[in-house]
């Protein structure tokens, strides 16, 4: 099967993304599939359906809208047998507005089918879409960077490098070669995000700045959800420990101690979702061996104070000794999870 090379262009700023995609199309003599032609509810599948009908020649530049999930796009275009070969994912970043994009509090809706086959709308925070477009990109193109002061540019480049250590970071210069093709096709699953590399002990960002740092927090004790909620709303959100821009990893709530949850935070948005249920464990046995493993990336972070505050949200000696029956009575203000249990 002859495969069509695809360069995917993504980014939170529509006008800047569209201009770059058009210039890249012209510079590489590849046709452009503009975001305006794609179905907003499922742009990845829409692009895959369009491409066989285009005279693509050596390949195509596909621009995706701001609401597109980079994970969905990679999954669709890198699927075996699709006839497509995803050569590069370029994330266009409007440098002066990067922090604003990562702090947006609005949500995007997309259609999906639930386990029963019924259609439903999935809502995803724009900030999460923006940070994932950075984290999973193969190339990050900073535009409008020349208006930043030298210290601000250094902070911006270091932050991007911490969020996406595996990506090539480039400052957009119209007179310079625009072709950012990766040497091998993009994989559908990558250990690309900075937070994943930090938890794996492989974190090595190329760009650094004294004000940008990363912290790995580990604790074997489950968290008290009530105290965690207070920490998030009253202390981390207020900037007491510096500006936590991105944190992600895994944790356990004492009130739901048999469930491993993913901790997923960017800007003002945080979500916890179940990723694994420990079946066959009697209540009295309580899982005490695995607690938190969370990466924090931010600006002017106070590492020691943040660690201490996180330690205070974990169970005390007396609470731990009381066991799961007592933990079930703790305050838990977070949304209920729908979890499925595996059966032997």
From TrEMBL:
Gene3D superfamilies: P-loop containing nucleotide triphosphate hydrolases (3.40.50.300)
Superkingdom assignment: Bacteria
Database matches in Pfam families: CobW_C (PF07683)
InterPro entries noted in UniProt: CobW-like_C (IPR011629), P-loop_NTPase (IPR027417), Zn_Chap_cDPG_Synth (IPR051927)
Domain CobW C-terminal: 212-314
Name of the protein in its database record: GTP-binding protein
Annotated source species: Microbacterium aquilitoris
